[in-house]
Design goal:
Helix content: over 70%
Distance between the termini: 30 Å
Oligomer: single chain
Order of helices and strands: HHHHHHHHHHHHHHHHHH
Largest sheet: none
Number of helices: 18
Structural class: mainly alpha
Length: 391
Amino acid sequence: MAEERKQSTASRKKSVAQEPVTSVLRGDEVPVYDRVLDADEEVLAALGYKPEFKREFSLWTTFCVSFAVLGLLPSFASTVYYGMGYAGTPGMVWGWLIAMFFIQCVAMSMAELCSSMPTSGGLYYASAVLAPPGWGPFAAWLTGWSNWMSQATGTPSVDYATSAMILAAVSIHKPGYTPQNYQIFLLTTLLMLIHGCISSMPTKWIANFNSVGSTFNMIALIITLIIIPASTNRESQGLPKFTPASVVWSNFYAGTDFPNGLSLLMTFVAVIWTLSGYDSPFHLSEECSNANIASPRAIVLTSTIGGTFGWFLQLVVAYTVIDIDAVLDSDLGQPWVSYLLQVLPEKTALAVLSLTVIAAFSMGQGCMVNMWPTYLFRGWANVQIRSQHHE
């Protein structure tokens, strides 16, 4: 045992100060273990605790998980009302572009923190490290619970939007049917139960399910980006194939009583909700190989690719929508469905809607899996270790 411990120390021959992370130990200290550590384990040792998880995630698989939580197509479909309804097409194109810039700044900062502190505690651990002396546990507690509340409400909100789209599809086949709130609630509850059952399956099954869902989300998004401009029936309605750029970029819709500038700011709600989830690689960093490089890259990739393709989707919708009032006030109760029926033949609209519903279901499952209560306990345990070390 002593010989192995010597080998573990000798294999590194470097102090904590030489590790590319923010350590809880003094710069001249060298963590000692009873076995030889690999590079990722040395990083965790420098952060002050023992490795517990298998590192089976790569940059690509980590990105897939975060992109599944992002769920770009269903997220956009769920928030059309806020982007289009507050400021019209300028709110969609300008609002997304401006908000995406600031979200990228946040993502870059988070990636830097992840590179410096690649732990499963993620934001909780980082909050404890960055807080003023004595405030670390409280900062971690506040960050952890606020994050948990957003995660706990994320899955129901996704399933609610999915239920609204499913019942809107029923309305298309039965014109006399109007979805009621209690029906949406019951269907949302059913979807939550299904996601709960799937999340209770063996880990390998869940991983496979999420991988398939992530791939489908990407494919569905690309198909939607192609099929809407290619199949729009605006010309058969006596309109140009696309709305003139001067109208799209500057003709504000009076969706609020506020000035255009403030209405534009209100559209940021849709962007922030849609582009949430890029912090997932931070939480998975302890299960990712080469974590202090791969996990930050996954964060940046998620926010960049999601933001870019999301803006393309905004442009497609902004250049093809015909009547904003009709989209927002339709009896179908779901603006995305109303929009599809407005600009596409019915069968094509139903096909795109089907892609959106399936993508939304896989997104809801991703959100359910991402809501690990253990992250709170891991994060709090990390904070306690750090607090005890300084005592």
